[in-house]
């Protein structure tokens, strides 16, 4: 018998029976009166009692609200699952309207739909590539101006003294630029903070994250990431490209903009969650492709990190979007670099070519690579643990927008100060050859014809620093320089991730790894005989970069392919794969990947690939929500309005049953209808009595439901008169007559597999005679996870 640890207290308005439970602080600092759920053990069978979830938002006066809205400290408990997140409807609603539309559609109609899907994917790739191009050019130009101003200032003051003025100039410039980026994120669109990858992972997993694919989010994301990178923070612009691609996909595939209130009357068929989610996975892949010049890596990223449901045609279309994206970026950047048609800049980060003859590897180096993977896993776990505690501190204390902006400015100023101090005290001078690749070489206190090596790492955009660590000649970096750089940049990057700015963690991870990897290579070379330089530092910089990135984000398949595509050399496929596997195994022993940690901190009901290992003894009856609010096939309008208006049971799916009979027998199931459908029916007043009196009534079509998608009006905005409340509504035509059901004795893993693989939102639990006994939703399954003490159950709270 598996062991289940009960750490459950249900937060709700009041407990009628007066039961008390363990008090759990909610995310919003609300005062709560908990309910306890009983675990009764009888013989060998555990019975888990169920209660339906209740809304925690109490009616408050404006005075109370203002007091409660600004708590000094927001208590945070990660043993919570938030009820504010809804699921996406990935399953098609096969009602009579849907079947009639399919019957009417000709063969040519289906062909046109298929062509439309390819056109949409092509457009997604094109616009994602354009956005990547815009970000790249804006960062290059603005960072160039900033570094030239600071460089000139430093050179002037090196001769006459007073370098502190240069430091103040650098810190003020950084803080001012980052302040702009932080203000637009913190005050206008907080969801645009960070890289956006955790949110897109959740969206593709089937969770509806509010505002994640809005046009406003995209604008704030793009401007925010430009400010973050130009402001000198330890961030990259590659991660946010994935989020940007997803927003572009969500917008284009709908053929309209709800934000701009413009409807272009195209792609109307795709206005539903099923189609939209497929296109968003194509957008995410196009974002990866534009960022790294890795179309195959993009497809694999969508497959590994996101989409629950996959088919062959979807793979092909996503690959097409990725290819178009990298080609568009390539083409426009070639025009920007004044050699149109030269397609050698496939991504935002270009690692440069690793030539096989100069950097071959040997069998005896493979154990060294695996050891580097283990180091990457350990450092990645340390990074994630530090960032986890830092994020909890931010949730508790730095939750006001003005505080978030001030923190971002502080980090920008500290980054500039640390960089300046490191460059100032470094005496690592290197000769400036005729073929030098340094963009902004700083002489400082070095002799004429030499430059400060530490400045190459700090006084540059992160992408350039990565490339110099990969490709600069052996001897360009002093081991002490690399060691100090790794140490300082590690803590700066850790502090920066999670600020209220748009920023990715890919490039900082690569930069930290490349620095300690190059250091590892230099130390290896110094241990061997002087004449034989078999440890080429650039090769170890690449392996270190892969190890560090793998240790932080824990992606395996897609990251291997992205790294191989970005280096343009398949020779490194095996070492990179071994390094990433080792980094993941070692890192997972201590803590989860960075994105998974942030998903958990947001209390998102995320469904992993499989149910917890020891959950076969739990059945659908113990997991389901009950009692279920059911509707009759012919239901009174007043009853429907009352059910939808009831805030305490904010349900989204209602089983439709044959007339409920008196007695204890559960009502027989005959279909399922969604809240959104009922709202559209009420809005159009599809009542039986009105249909009889108005002979010319236009029959409701699927187009009416698609036009209302995705922002269905709230029930409060629909006016129903007292007379109309007495009317009846026939749900037969609109309900899904064949919803997925499971018997109540089905084990949790079987329920989980069915729910996860088909991307369901509701799964009806029935008894032997097809009577409705319960309903399984995403939160019921996401509550169970394998902890250190066996199977644990999370709490649900309206946070």
UniProtKB/TrEMBL annotation:
Belongs to the chloride channel (TC 2.A.49) family. SMART domains: CBS. It comes from Labrus bergylta. The chain crosses the membrane at residues 118-139, 167-188, 218-236, 279-302, 314-336, 366-390, 402-425, 480-500, 506-528, 540-564, 570-591. This is Chloride channel protein. One of its GO terms (cellular component) is lysosomal membrane. Residues 1-31 are annotated as: Disordered. It comes from the Eukaryota. Keywords: CBS domain, Chloride, Ion transport, Membrane, Repeat, Transmembrane, Transmembrane helix, Transport. It is a multi-pass membrane protein. InterPro entries: CBS_dom, CBS_dom_sf, CIC-7, Cl-channel/antiporter, Cl-channel_core, ClC. Its main location: membrane. Residues 1-12 have a biased composition (Polar residues). GO terms for molecular function: chloride channel activity; chloride:proton antiporter activity. Residues 735-793 form the CBS domain. It is found in: Membrane.
């Amino acid at each position: 018998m598996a062991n289940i640890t009960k750490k459950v207290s249900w937060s709700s308005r009041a407990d009628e029976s007066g039961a008390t439970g363990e008090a759990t602080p909610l995310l919003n600092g609300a005062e709560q009166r908990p309910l306890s759920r009983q675990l009764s053990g009888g013989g060998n069978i555990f019975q888990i009692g169920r209660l339906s979830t209740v809304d925690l938002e109490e009616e408050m006066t404006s005075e109370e609200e203002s007091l409660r809205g600004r708590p000094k400290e927001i208590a945070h408990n990660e043993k919570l699952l938030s009820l504010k997140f809804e699921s996406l409807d990935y399953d098609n609603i096969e009602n009579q309207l849907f079947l009639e539309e399919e019957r009417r559609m000709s063969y040519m109609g289906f062909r046109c739909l298929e062509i439309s899907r390819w056109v949409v994917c092509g457009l997604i790739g094109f616009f994602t590539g354009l956005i990547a191009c815009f970000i790249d050019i804006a960062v290059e130009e603005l960072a160039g101006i900033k570094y030239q101003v600071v460089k000139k200032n430093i050179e002037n003051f090196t001769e006459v003294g007073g370098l502190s003025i240069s430091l103040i100039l650098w810190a003020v410039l950084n803080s001012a630029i980052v302040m702009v980026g932080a203000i637009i994120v913190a005050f206008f669109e907080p969801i645009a903070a960070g890289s956006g990858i955790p949110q897109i992972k959740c969206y593709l997993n089937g969770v509806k994250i509010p505002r994640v694919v809005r046009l406003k989010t995209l604008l704030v994301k793009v401007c925010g990431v430009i400010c973050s990178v130009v402001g000198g923070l330890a961030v990259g612009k590659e991660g946010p490209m994935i989020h940007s691609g997803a927003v572009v996909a969500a917008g284009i595939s709908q053929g309209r903009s709800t934000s701009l209130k413009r409807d272009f009357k195209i792609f109307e068929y795709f206005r539903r969650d099923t189609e939209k989610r497929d296109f968003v996975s194509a957008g995410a892949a196009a974002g990866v492709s534009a960022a790294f010049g890795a179309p195959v890596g993009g497809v694999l990223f969508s497959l590994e990190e996101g989409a629950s449901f996959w088919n062959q045609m979807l793979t092909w279309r996503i690959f097409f979007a990725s290819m178009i994206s990298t080609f568009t970026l390539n083409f426009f950047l070639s025009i920007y670099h004044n050699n149109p048609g030269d397609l050698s800049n496939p991504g935002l980060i270009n690692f440069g070519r690793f030539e096989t003859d100069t950097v071959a590897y040997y069998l005896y180096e493979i154990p060294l690579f695996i050891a580097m993977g283990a180091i990457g896993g350990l450092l990645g776990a340390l990074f994630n643990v530090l960032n986890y505690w830092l994020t909890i501190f931010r949730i508790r204390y730095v939750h006001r927008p003005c505080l978030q902006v001030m923190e971002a400015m502080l980090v920008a100023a500290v980054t500039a100060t640390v960089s300046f101090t490191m460059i100032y005290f470094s005496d690592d001078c290197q000769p400036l050859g005729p073929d030098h690749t340094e963009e902004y070489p700083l002489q400082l206190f070095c002799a004429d014809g030499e430059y400060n090596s530490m400045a190459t790492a700090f006084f540059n955009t992160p992408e350039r620093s990565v490339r110099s660590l990969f490709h600069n000649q052996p001897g360009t970096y002093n081991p002490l320089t690399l060691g100090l750089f790794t140490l300082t940049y590690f803590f700066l990057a850790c502090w920066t991730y999670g600020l209220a700015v748009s920023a990715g963690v890919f490039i900082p991870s690569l930069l930290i790894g490349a620095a300690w990897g190059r250091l590892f290579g230099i130390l290896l070379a110094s241990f061997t005989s002087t004449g034989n330089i078999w440890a080429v530092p650039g090769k170890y910089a690449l392996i270190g970069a892969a190890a560090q990135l793998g240790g932080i984000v824990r992606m395996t398949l897609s990251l291997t392919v992205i790294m191989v595509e970005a280096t343009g050399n398949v020779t490194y496929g095996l070492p990179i794969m071994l390094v990433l596997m080792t980094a993941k195994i070692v890192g997972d022993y201590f803590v989860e990947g960075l994105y998974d940690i942030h998903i958990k901190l947001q209390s998102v009901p995320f469904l992993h690939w499989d149910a917890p290992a020891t959950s076969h003894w739990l059945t659908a009856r113990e997991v389901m929500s009950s009692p279920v609010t059911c509707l009759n096939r012919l239901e009174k309008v007043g009853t429907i309005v009352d059910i939808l208006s009831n805030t305490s049971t904010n349900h989204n799916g209602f089983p439709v049953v044959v007339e409920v009979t008196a007695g204890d027998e559960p009502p027989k199931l005959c279909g399922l209808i969604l809240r959104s459908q009922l709202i559209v029916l009420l809005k159009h007043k599809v009542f039986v009595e009105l249909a009889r009196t108005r002979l010319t009534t236009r029959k409701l079509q699927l187009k009416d439901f698609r036009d209302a998608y995705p922002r269905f009006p709230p029930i409060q905005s629909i006016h129903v008169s007292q007379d109309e409340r007495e009317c009846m509504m026939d749900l037969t035509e609109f309900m899904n007559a064949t919803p997925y059901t499971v018997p109540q004795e089905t084990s949790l893993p079987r329920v989980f597999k069915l729910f996860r693989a088909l991307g369901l939102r509701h799964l009806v639990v029935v008894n032997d005679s097809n009577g409705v006994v319960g309903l399984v939703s995403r939160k019921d399954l996401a509550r169970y996870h394998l902890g250190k003490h066996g199977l644990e159950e999370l709490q649900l709270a309206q946070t």
